[in-house]
Amino acid sequence: MGHVLDAVGATNQSMGGAGTALPLDAMGALQWNPASITGLRHAEVGFSFAAFGPETSIESSVEAGAFGPGTPGGRLHGSTTSDVGISPIPTFAATTGRTDSPWSFGLGAFAIGGFGVDYPVSSQNPILTPQPPDGFGFGAIYSQFQLMQFCPTVARRFESGWSVGFAPTFNWATLAIDPFSAAAPNADGRYASAAHGDSAWGIGFQAGVFYESAEPGWNLGLSYKSPQWFQDFKMNGWDDTGGARQLQMDLDYPSILSIGGAYTGFQRLQIATDIRYIDYENTDGFQSAGFDANGAVTGFGWDSIWVLSSGVAIDVNDRLQWRFGYTYNQSPIDSANIFYNSPAPAIIQHHLSTGFTREVADGWMCSLAYKHGFQNTVSGKWWGSTGEVAGTRIASTLATNSLSAGLTKRF
């Protein structure tokens, strides 16, 4: 969903991320609605691990003379695949059970987002040709952005069936980008490198309400995750003389509003649907894309997006539950700003997932899930300081696959 992960943990992933009104495990409940931990039937501790593999490529073409007479001398066209491999995504969650007390408590620690590419320099793919004056592209493009969140959570259930929950959120992120176009070029016209990445801490909060009917039937959920306000990332780079230069970027995490409904009235079937709004447009770092007077890129230029997540859980027997999920989200990147998002082509829109949970021993639950993000391509023009460049084309393509496994102990 842009750079926001659509689900956390194997169980929530197999439901397509739907979980605001249907808490199937501690991981999904803590991520999408802190109030919903009161709906868990047991105290539990769970771990999950996902192997996430993106398939990313960038294509560009430039007609002869697009950048001025003789530049280039002939048409150039090329396509390059990113060298990024499989990334690990860990998840941990623990919650207390609902016994005689109306209070529930939880603690979650999970990855909540990221992006990354690794494109080598190319003599044929125009955007990957060396920076001017040796070429007219960016050269090799590398990025790595990872976010972790920690959320101590408290929730209270009332006799009416309503619950409220709150969690302060503490975040840690790392960022590295090369070349670093968010700062003015060096005196020789080349952008500096910020491959020597930096880490930063961030803070925010999440609040939610949850309704669970006394008899199996309709559940409702509503939650709001505030923007996660991070320290500025400060990377150690160098200028054209080899001297030290500090590169700085303010990059926060967007606010997320989630509304969910679930029906649990069937004997062996549960259905959940979530609608989310992710507010990229009002998040630092994602503002309108373009070049300022000094030649620095002003932001990623992402649009705020709507998301629909739906999942079905089927109790095959008393020890096995199978699930299917689907997520659709608008792309925050369109043809007008794809050029500025070569390091972060977060353009997937359709996700399909499936998975199961099997009770393997008394209270021990083993889960497995697979998700495929269907390939999407967004193309647009090359942009310069004066606007679109005629006779050019940039296209980014992305598909994703992930395999998640989890182990939970219920008490």
TrEMBL record:
| Record localization | Cell outer membrane
Query: Would the keyword Signal be found if you checked this record's keyword annotation?
Result: yes
Q: How does it sit in the membrane?
A: Multi-pass membrane protein
Q: Which domain of life is it from?
A: Bacteria
Signal peptide range: none
Q: Which UniProt keywords apply?
A: Cell outer membrane, Membrane, Signal, Transmembrane, Transmembrane beta strand
Pfam families xrefs: Toluene_X
- Give the matching SUPFAM superfamilies: Porins
Task: Give the family, as the similarity comment puts it.
Answer: Belongs to the OmpP1/FadL family.
Tell me what this protein is called: Long-chain fatty acid transport protein
Q: Name the species this protein comes from.
A: Neorhodopirellula lusitana
